[in-house]
Amino acid sequence: MWIFKDYRLMNVDEHKKILEIRNSEFVRSSSSDNKFITFEEHLKWVRNMDKNRCYMALFVKGNIEGGVNFTFYGKTVKNWGIFFSKTTMPLVSVGAVYLFIDYMFDRFDVLNSEVLKVNKRALEFNRYFGVEVVDENEKFYKMKLTKEKWENIKKNPDIYKRVQKIKYKFLCKGI
Q1: How do residues 133-175 score in pLDDT, each as one tens digit?
Q2: Residues of the chain under the 70 pLDDT cut
Q3: pLDDT for res 78
Q4: If we measure between CA atoms, which residue out of 73, 70, 97 comes closest to residue 81?
Q5: What pLDDT is recorded for position 79?
Q6: Which residues partner with 168 through β-bridges?
Q7: What pLDDT is attached to residue 29?
Q8: Could you give the number of structural domains in the chain?
Q9: Burial of 149 (C-beta count, 10 Å sphere; 0-12/13-18/19+)
Q10: Given this model, what pLDDT does residue 157 score?
């Protein structure tokens, strides 16, 4: 069973594990906010999290593999992101992103995101799921995926065959 669990529902040990992954050089080197976060800062941030945000840890067979998140206003996701442990298998990361995008489109019509220009791996990963570059500045590619486009992309048999067998649930407080 794969569980996407809201940070606000996690216990202390789970917070320590997700923060360990988030603070790893592998994750920080490709993040827009690459600052090392202390455990106290993390817990304070979770306690004060805005109701328009959802951050979830991905549990696969009881192990935390990474995290997914989004910030929304109305029917639009303003920004979303993902990160995984360096040891996460590609099938897990692809499956998790597929399920996460589908989860968001059950609630929203448009997904927007930003990808660091230096993070070519993330850019190609996003494109694999149909996310398009719509603008850019010195630091970021501004990206977008619509519900209409996703309805066609999600039928891709290469991905769909793999994820249809996954048992999963999302535990996002208030969403």
Answers
A1: 999 999 999 999 999 999 999 988 888 888 988 999 999 876 6
A2: 174-175
A3: 96
A4: 70
A5: 95
A6: 2
A7: 87
A8: 1
A9: middle
A10: 82
CA dist., res. 84 & res. 18, Å (int): 10
Nearest partner of 81 among 105, 119, 112, judged by Cα: 112
Secondary structure in 3-state letters for 94-108 = HHHHHHHHHHHHCCC
pLDDT at 173: 79
| Class of residue 25 by CB neighbours under 10 A (exposed 0-12, middle 13-18, buried 19+) | exposed
Coil/strand/helix, residue 3: strand
Which pair of structure tokens corresponds to residue 138? 């010195």
| Sequence-ordered list of residues with C-beta below 8 angstroms from that of 45, at least 6 positions apart, any chain | 37
Residues 6+ apart with CB under 8 A from 159: 94, 98
> What is the C-alpha separation between 52 and 152, in angstroms, rounded?
28
User: Residue 115 — φ and ψ, nearest 5°?
Assistant: -125, 130
Its pTM surpasses 0.70 = yes
Per-residue model confidence (pLDDT) at position 23:
97
123, 115 in Cβ contact below 8 A? yes
Q: Residue 15 sits in which domain range? A: 2-171
CATH number reported for the structural domain that contains residue 83 in this entry:
3.40.630.30
> Of 147, 107, 114, 109, which is closest to residue 130 (Cα–Cα)?
147
